[in-house]
Structures are given as C-alpha cells and as structure tokens.
C-alpha cells in the first residue's frame, strides 16, 4: 500500500476493525519511511456496478465521487465525516441490493439528495442547486418551497 504522503511502499498495520455496517475492514497504517499514519479500507470485490451517465456513456461506480460531492455540499456545515460515510454506504447498499448492474447517474443523484436531506437541509439545497442546475432564482425558490412543505408534513 503506497503512502499518500511520501509514496513509500512499505507500511505496517496498526489497527484493524470492521466498519459499522460490517461490509469493510478499516485499517490504520503507519508508513515505515515517513512514519505518518493513514487509513485504508478493504472490501469484498463484487461485480462492478456501472453508471449510465447523461450522455449515455458508462463508467464504473465510484463511491469516492459521491462522497466528494457530499463533502463539497457540507463544507462549513456541522456534518461529520462519519455521517457522510454512513450516507454513502446507504447509497451504495441500495444500489447493490438492486438486481440491475447498471444504474443511471440520475438515480445516484436522487439517492444522494435523499441522504443529504436527512443529514443537513442546507447541504441538501447546495447539492440540489448544482445537481438540478437551477437556471434562475425561481427554480431555486421552488426547491426551497418543497423542502419547507416536506418539513411541515
């Protein structure tokens, strides 16, 4: 495992434990070159889940892309990394539990918005504004109205 700090290829495992969902092993490692610590995750390899993008091209599902989008939406918000990890795990489990090995990027975006709505409404609106490409203030306002209506129910 290459060190993300110095590129060293030798490290030792300091701690191993399963993640909350039991689907992965979290390993704390220490680089034997620079002595810095980093975390890796080990998971069972399954059939790849393919994402059908809006232009009909296909690429393998990348949970890190989903996590990065959520991180950007939650910037300067009181949301922990663990909350986002759990949300991404929920999204991935939902996708993998389906029978389809191909899923649209639209489906992933909708699942991401559902998870963000549960975690932080401001992050949800931020994500929705980029994802849905609000063209004007009115479409942004309409999304806020839907959120307020859902909150009342």
UniProtKB/TrEMBL annotation:
GO terms for molecular function: ATP binding; DNA binding; zinc ion binding. InterPro entries: ATP-cone_dom (IPR005144), NrdR-like_N (IPR055173), RNR_NrdR-like (IPR003796). The keyword Metal-binding applies. It comes from the Bacteria. A zinc finger (unnamed) spans 3-34. Its cofactor is Zn(2+). Binds 1 zinc ion. One of its GO terms (biological process) is negative regulation of DNA-templated transcription. The keyword Transcription regulation applies. Keywords: ATP-binding, DNA-binding, Metal-binding, Nucleotide-binding, Repressor, Transcription, Transcription regulation, Zinc, Zinc-finger. Residues 49-139 form the ATP-cone domain. Signal peptide: none annotated. PANTHER family: TRANSCRIPTIONAL REPRESSOR NRDR. NCBIfam families: transcriptional regulator NrdR. Belongs to the NrdR family. Negatively regulates transcription of bacterial ribonucleotide reductase nrd genes and operons by binding to NrdR-boxes. This is Transcriptional repressor NrdR. The lineage of its organism: Bacteria, Bacillati, Bacillota, Clostridia, Eubacteriales. The gene is nrdR.
